[in-house]
Amino acid sequence: MPNQDEKFLAMLIYLISFFTVFIGPLIIWLIKKDSSKFIDYHGREYLNFLISYTIYTFVASLTFLILIGFVLVPVVAIAAFIFTIIGAVKAYEGTEYKIPFIFRLL
Which of 4, 54, 70, 81 is 20 to 30 A removed from 92 (C-alpha atoms)? Predict the structure, then answer.
């Protein structure tokens, strides 16, 4: 069972991503991954999420040429926002949340 500090830092990985998409979560994860399995899990999950949704956004942006991108890009953006909030809430609750539709590379 993770303690309050671990829950807070895991939640912060998701919330700081609204201000520093890559650097903030990466710094927290790199500093705390060896001392907490819980923070390591959420750090890896967020970075996998970031990689996956960057690819989804790139592909959706390419579809602007055939006018589908006008629908796909907002859908990907809204899904990324919602899954980030859900991840933060689940991290603060102390549960390991698997974000849907991501490639687990790390």
Answer: 54
pLDDT tens-place string over residues 29-79: 999 999 999 999 999 999 999 999 999 999 999 998 888 889 999 999 999
User: Euclidean distance between the first and final Cα of the chain, in Å?
Assistant: 23
Helix ranges (H only) for the chain are: 4-15, 23-32, 37-62, 69-93
Q: Is 106 within 8 Å of 43 (Cβ atoms)?
A: no
Section 95-99 average pLDDT = 95
Among positive and negative, which fits the CA dihedral 58, 61, 62, 68?
positive
